Amino acid sequence: MQTFINFTNHPSDCWSKNQRSAAESYGDIIDISFPQISPYATGKEIDALVSEYYIKIKKYDCAAIMVQGEFVFTYRLVSLLKENGFLVLSSCSERRVSEYTDENGRTQSRSEFEFIRFREY
Question: Which sequence spans correspond to the domains of the chain?
Fold first, then answer.
């Protein structure tokens, strides 16, 4: 069976029912944790990581891959995956922010994200 690869820092176990259902329409969900990318990483170091993760991802029979994370790494990996015929997606959510004042008089904000759909890169 084909798979839906979740290549983010957000494990699919924490997703909403709607997001899981949308992902499962592509196949079984497989989580691959997004790497920590140092802000000091050089272009060569990022390219080496892109190659490493591309090799990991292409071992699966992927119907779709959701890639979200550090921008430069994501751009380079998405470009490579698309060049090689993979369907690469991003999650689209509606963000709702509410602000309140806590017991110490500080303004706090809370964000809630509601999954809407996947969008192709």
Answer: 3-120
Residues 6+ apart with CB under 8 A from 22: 115, 117, 118
54-70 per-position pLDDT tens digit: 999 999 999 999 999 99
Tally Cβ neighbours within 10 Å of residue 5.
Answer: 26
Regions in the chain scoring below 70 on pLDDT: none
Tokens for 21, please give them: 């259902």
Instruction: State pLDDT tens for residues 10-19.
Output: 999 999 999 9
CA-only gyration radius of the chain, Å? 17
Tell me if the pTM is above 0.70. Answer: yes
For the domain bounded by 3-120, which CATH number is listed?
A: 3.40.50
* Long-range contacts of the stretch 31-36 (C-beta < 8 A, 24+): 31/6, 32/5, 32/6, 32/7, 32/56, 32/57, 33/9, 34/7, 34/8, 34/9, 34/68, 34/69, 34/70, 35/69, 35/73
